[in-house]
Amino acid sequence: MGQHETPKSDIAISQAAAKRPIAEIAASALGLAEADLEPYGRYKAKVSLDAIERLAGRPDGKLVLVTAITPTPAGEGKTTTTVGLADGLRRIGERSMVCLREPSLGPSFGMKGGAAGGGYAQVVPMEDINLHFTGDFHAVGAANNLLAALADNAIHWGTRDLDPRRVALRRALDMNDRSLREIVLALGGPKNGFPREGGFDITVASEVMAIFCLASGLDDLKARLARIVVGQARDGRAVTAGDLKAAGAMAALLKDALAPNLVQTLEGTPAFVHGGPFANIAHGCNSAIATRAALKLADWTVTEAGFGADLGAEKFFDVKCRATGLKPACAVVVATVRALKMHGGAAKADLGREDLAALTRGLSNLRRHVENLAKFGVPVVVSVNRFSADTAAEHAAVLDACAQMGVKAAIADHWALGGEGAAGLARLVVEASAGPSRFKPLYVDGLPLRDKLAIIAREIYRADRVVLSDAARAQFARFEAAGHGGLPICVAKTQYSFSTDPDAKGAPTGFDLPVREARLSAGAGFVVAVCGDILTMPGLPKKPAAEAIDVIDGRIVGLF
Questions:
Q1: Which of 46, 78, 90, 367 is catalytic?
Q2: Coil, strand or helix: which one is 530?
Q3: Which of 177, 324, 378, 483 has the smallest count of CB within 10 Å of its CB?
Q4: Is residue 78 annotated as part of the catalytic site, yes or no?
Q5: Nearest residue to 112 via CA among 538, 551, 550
Q6: Assign residue 4 a region: left if phi > 0, alpha if psi is -120 to 50, beta otherwise?
Q7: Is 387 a residue of the active site?
Q8: Closest by Cα among 483, 457, 335 to 395
């Protein structure tokens, strides 16, 4: 049985799952006491920061990153593989745990859908996780918008020297709403403030979300929040959240959210689902607090980074690992025959038939991701996520190509079979992770910002050159003059190609990387390079997923 053959819908599976209360999972699988939990109903809970602090003396388990080839509409199943691999490790006798990001409401009601896995490899309760969950995203959005309100209030009353023409902070909303990308604030007269242009980013693109996911604890959270650059004074000096005395109140909104959320897979493997920055416009990893705690609680922690390895994995290595000292033992690249055929030029309507020529051409995309990951010194395993229309010849072609690349690969069927379907993949991961980690970032801190960006463009995307707009060039210079030149780069670009052209599939070469602006995230600790036409507030598709979501007989239906 392969994907799309299961006799139950995902929602039916989810409703029937999670029979064990989360307190039992915490006790039996993690050794946590009931007093260590803050329950949110029977099947989800937060693990207290005090309990996490008590774990500090324990040795770390091994960290496995799950990433993927460049995404296509055919789907790759990265989250499903992350969950399936953790269940597969348990099936072969290992103590494992999952670390995932929380889904954003934007894609849940838009085009992509939720992010809880699928089939028999998902985290539950799926409906809760894909909707409001424990309220973390609302807290992040509220903290961001509190700072925005305090900034405009300071302009209105003149209590701080903040130039209304140079406010960099944008408001945040966890929804796809293109009409809010660029707006005019404070219309209606002086009583409403100083009119100026502004805009909204989706919450998962906000610096507050990035800070939330990189902070090591409450004290670090407050220090990072205080460093957020809100805008500039009239003399050009940076005005920060600390200058506005906003960090304490923002931390008060985020205090409860900072504790990681504990749920379980369908097979009872414990899972942290916490934080949720996108990987195409932010750094795309779950919270550092959750990852560090999982490494203390289990022998194997399986986590993911968003979209393809050129975005999520590169940022996981160069941003998250640099900031936290994490050293992954192995990287798993998820591919599907269907997606590889699309990279080879096959139309979506033809994905159900055997097409070895398109598959062979599409393998160039997988090959490039494997080559790129090797530059970080991390062993690589390929997981071929099985679909029911795949043929034996297509699987053999992928496995042969992986052997020629020098990497081990497995055909994984966790969507239909759960952990049993990923047991072979789990054995390859254990084998590849033997020995000490040889992980290293792609570049050193001391390089100029433009040089770091050029290395990413050349080594990961294979671009010929970086083309900076006049605005981006001036912004990089200003950030370096202000002492931020040592920060890593977080690239915002389309997830659908190595280039900035979403239609350039496979492994394109001979292109430029256009950078239209740079944004400083001083609190998060990186500089964002905004490339091509990428948007930090997505829009809804012509037929949003929201149209199929409903409540029938008290049950939520239509989520996927």
A1: 78
A2: strand
A3: 483
A4: yes
A5: 538
A6: left
A7: yes
A8: 335
What is the reported pLDDT for 4?
Answer: 46
**Equal fold, 10-134+257-432 vs 136-254:** no
Mean pLDDT (the chain, rounded):
93
What the block records as the tokens of 151 is: 């900034």
Residue 408, H or E segment: strand 408-412
Strands, E, within 268-360: which ranges?
270-273, 300-304, 330-335
Collapse the DSSP code of 256 into the 3-class scheme (helix H, G, I; strand E, B; otherwise coil) and give the result: coil
Give whole-number Cα distances, 194 to 187, 232, 321, in Å: 8, 16, 41
Q: What is the pLDDT of residue 3?
A: 58
Q: Which residue(s) pair with 467 in the sheet? A: 514
Out of 415, 476, 498, 511, pick the active-site residue: 415
Q: Is 412 a catalytic residue?
A: no
Judge residue 219's burial from the number of C-beta atoms within 10 Å of its C-beta, 0-12 exposed, 13-18 middle, 19 or more buried: exposed
Q: Where are the domains of the chain?
A: 10-134+257-432, 136-254, 449-531
Please identify which of the residues 137, 387, 439, 526 carries the catalytic annotation. 387
Task: Select which of 307, 376, 479, 498 is catalytic.
Answer: 307
Give the largest CA-CA distance in the chain: 71
Those residues of the chain that have pLDDT short of 70 are 1-19, 112-113
Give me 458's structure tokens.
């050349």
Closest CA to 416 of 131, 143, 87, 104: 87
As a residue count, the chain comes to 560
User: Residue 387 has what DSSP assignment?
Assistant: B
Q: What is the pLDDT of residue 112?
A: 67
Decide which of 3.40.50.2300, 3.40.1390.30, 3.30.1510.10, 3.40.50.1100 is the CATH code for 136-254: 3.30.1510.10
Q: Which helix (H) or strand (E) holds 403?
A: helix 392-405
Q: Which amino acid is at 112?
A: K
Q: How far apart are CA 374 and CA 331, in angstroms?
A: 10
Annotated active-site residue in 90, 101, 320, 368 = 101
CATH annotation of 10-134+257-432? 3.40.50.300
Residue 509 one-letter amino acid: T
Residue 278 designated active-site: no
**Out of 279, 313, 346, 401, which one is annotated catalytic?**
279
CATH topology of domain 449-531: Formyltetrahydrofolate synthetase; domain 3 (3.10.410)
What the block records as the tokens of 535 is 């948007």
- Tokens 């945040």 appear where? 172
Is 492 part of the annotated catalytic residue set?
no
Measure the CA–CA gap between 255 and 64, rounded to whole angstroms.
Answer: 28
Query: Look-up: residue for tokens 């920061």?
Result: 49
Active site residue 80: yes
In contact, 537 and 200? CB cutoff 8 Å: yes
Q: Rg (Cα) of the chain, in Å, rounded?
A: 23
Q: Whole-prediction pTM value? A: 0.93
Q: Name residue 271's beta-bridge partners.
A: 98, 263
Tell me how far CA of residue 49 lies from CA of 23, 257, 388, 538, in angstroms.
16, 10, 44, 33
